[in-house]
Structure formats: C-alpha cells, structure tokens
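Notes from the 1:1 (GR / supervisor)

We went over the backlog. Supervisor wanted to see one worked example end to end before approving the batch request, so GR pasted a single chain during the call. The sequence is below; no edits were made to it. Supervisor asked that the structure be written out right there so they could see what the output format looks like.
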Amino acid sequence: MAIDPFKPVVLSAEGADLTFSVLPYGLTFHSISTEAGEDFIGGPEDPKDHAKGRKFLNPIIGRYANRLEAGKKLEYKSANGKTTQIELPEFSAPGVVLHGGPESDKENKVDSIVQHGPFDKCYWQPLDTKDSKLFADSGFSSTSSPSGKESSLIFAIESPDGDSGYPGQVRVETLLAVVPSSASDAELGKSAGKLLIRYRAALDKDGSVEATPFNMTHHWGFNLSASNEKVGKAEKGTVFEHIFQLYAPAGKSISHLELDPAQIATGDLKPLSGSAESFSNPGLHSWDQPGGKRIGEGIPSDGYDDFYVWGPTPIPQSDDINKIAVAETKRVRLTSESAGRSVTFHSNQAGVQLWSAGAMPDHPADPAQSGGSMKKAHRKGGQPDSGNFNGAFAAIEFGGPHCGFLEPNLVGLGGQEEILEKGQVYDNWVVAEAWRK
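Structure output shown during the call:
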C-alpha cells in the first residue's frame, strides 16, 4: 500500500527535544518544534494546500534551484570539454525559469520511484536502508513503511532523461535525521537537537549523458516567535525583529550576488559592506557584521530575496554529523531574542538565499492566493485568520550560486560543482541546530 503523501511523517530521537515532520509530497518540511505547541516552520495548516498551486512553502527544489534564462540556448561543458546545449521552458516570468520549471504534463504515481519533476511536485518514496544506493553505508537507518516516530529516513526518486528540460537520468536520495545534542552556549542557550538534511544524486552509469546541470535546495521558511503568544502579538507574527547573521569561512569574505531586472544572476559580486543604494536589490545587506542584523532594519522595499556567496571551502568528508557540523562549517544564525529561540546552520554549500516572503500578500492575505490558511500555531497572538503573508517567515536556502555553471566569474565560487558528471555523487548537506534560552 502506498504511503499517504500528505500525512506528516514524524522524526524524533531519544535525548532530543527537537521534533520534525515531513510530507512525502514534494518532500515538504511541515514542522519543527522544541516543545508542545511550538512550530518554527511557516506555511499552511492543511498539508493538502501544498498541492494547490506552487507557493514554495518548504518543499525540495530541483533539478535546478532559483532562476535561469528560459527560451534560449544555454551552454555548459563537461569535464572532458564536451559542450552541451539546453533550452529550458518558461515558468514564473517571461524569459525566466524558476525552481525547476513548470509542472510536467506526465502524471506521477504515488508509489513509483520514477517521478517527473519539478522536484516539489514529486511523490518522494521512503526506502528501506538496504534499497538505498547512495546512503546504504551512512550509518543511518530507514524504512519504506514509516509508522510512529523514526529518527532517520531516506527518501528517493529517479528523474528521467529530459525531465524538466535537463539531460540524463538522475537518481536522487535525501537523508533526514534528528540527532540529540547536549551542547550549551552562553548566547543561544541549550541545544534541543540537530536536524541533518543531506542530498545525494548520481547520473545513470549506463546512460549516454556525461554531465548535467544540478543544484538542489530546500525552500524552507522559519518564524521562531509566531507560536509564542506574547511575542507573536507584539511582533504581529512577522520575522522583522529576528536577527540574521552570516559567518564567513576562515580567510574568506561574503559577497552579494547581483541580479538583472528579471532577477537573473549577472555574475557580478559586491561586498556586504556597501551602501544600500549600491546593490541590485537596494537595502542593507551587512549580515556578516558582529552580532548580525535585524531583518527589518534597512529592508528593501520588496523585502529580501538575495543570494550570498562565500564559495567552496575544505569540508570534512564524513557521515558523522558531529564531524561535519563543527565551528568551521557554521554559516548562518537566525535568532528571535524576544522568544529566546535560535537556529544555527552548518553547510558544505557555497552560499545561501534569504527570502523574507516579500512577494506574499500583505496581512490579512487571501488563503487562496498565498498557499492556504497559515498555521494555527502561528496565530496564537490574536492575529486574525489569514493566508501566509509578507514577512511571515524567512526562507533560508543553501546551494550553489544562481547561474553558477554559466557565468565565468562564478565557476570558481561553487558554479563548477553545479555540473553533475557521470561517476560523481552530488553531495549537499545542511545541519540545523535548534536552541532555547
């Protein structure tokens, strides 16, 4: 019997207060909490609302995250120097393809490993550990029939050759795991546990395609204070008082990826210390200053929807979460001082996108136009019923720079890693640790 794609699958672990739930549909993150009644994740109350349109409220994104040019020939080179041309279909705006492109006209089966993208519209299949091709020896367990509470699960799809306009059959597996932590921090408080998200993918070894563009992420949005009744009321359910901080790798700086009017990356980079008017999205982007910055301070008129690049760094190669989530790999902190909650993020990726939900309607938002009615847990502060509105969450998406495999200036900053070669395994991981004061 096929798993219900809209029934949240719960992950928890002995010794961790952190609890996480995910939907097989779109591998959509449904909730994260550290205690009863709390939820760090924005989005709709009803999981089935994720299937009504595409508001990108916490699903997986692929084959290629964010924006590329559509309707024209794009060229990339594989490691042996062979040039391949692709032409992608429009989705979201003229001349643009966003987040994997339009929905396929081929119907996906709920219980099939073969799924037609984009990835946020796929039914991701839970695997028994023995059936995993990319995580079987990772030390984490998984089952194809999750029931009750698991501590880790592996989900997979196989994306056919030509799917969403991209060449090559690709096997994609995602490992999700909750891991306990006893850490404490003078600023952040005590750890409630860690969540590991690890994506691996490989081209079919028997196929004729040598290389294909590939850049996955999760489009998950956080609000650390909305489910606190007192704070949610004072801050009107928004994240504008949250602190966002970026941490540069040792010896490196962080840059803003500049965009053209269609929000396609130009390849130009600017230091975060620049004046508000100097950026393609005018506003204060000084997230790397000591202590970070409040999201609402100097916010652009349409909010933040920006990618920040630090480039590739030497990262420990290990399946042990305690060996990869170390001080050297810490990249982001999100904090609600008023609610006493923080999440820190470690990753091996070359950059991160911050989106403050500025494209969502203002409050109160029509649920039909904003991905459904927002969660009851985020309306404890007396906010009237609403859809998901401008500033209701901050999306934090790790990946390679937009257009990185196309722009020469970005190839050395993680862009070359956006070309998946035959015989290679794509490996993108994020560790999110929840903290309470």
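Supervisor's comment: The chain has a mean pLDDT of 96.
Batch request approved.
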